[in-house]
Amino acid sequence: MTESAVRGRNFRACGVVRPVALVVGLFLFSLALVLGLQSGLGAYSWVVFQDGLARRTFLTVGQASIVVSGVIVGASWLLGVPPGMGTIANLVLIGVFMDVLLWLGWVPRATTLLGGFTEVALSVVLLGIATGMYVAAGYGAGPRDSLMLALARRTGWSVAWVRWLLEVSVTGAGIALGGAFGIGTIVVAMTVGPAVRLGFLLFGLDRHGYRKDEGA
Q: What pTM was estimated for this model as a whole?
């Protein structure tokens, strides 16, 4: 059984439930990213880069997300990791959802330090829940995870080391472009791992993203 099939069995009811879980998970992930951006304390690492691109070009933050994800998917494919349905959905929907949320103004810009840290905390919690939900839907890795896997396979380095290098690199590029970097960026970087672990537990997945009762 493939990894995606094992994961997808976490939503057993019918063929409708998994796509809904994927879309809802990506919406919550987008909401988490917007919360970090609106906190005024610093966005998630990739959003720092995308915000920097948006400040330097005609793109919105969401459009910048789609462009960056498209480049990443292309690079991953060249490196031997082709995109799946989840990859393409991630590529398109997160950027669209981010722009819609910002346009609607559903997430207010924090005006106090307490409000900023509250939005950062909510962002971390939602990142964990959303990741568990869309991984459990079983449609494959997102663009950044695909690139991480491709580079790890090509270099022989550990996934954790490759992911850390990617995060540091895009954050540095985002800072150079004037993106929304701050203490919140560091807080998210330090806490998102445990949050994702909790999200996996919530949806019955082990630390590798498999159902606990089925393993790899």
A: 0.86
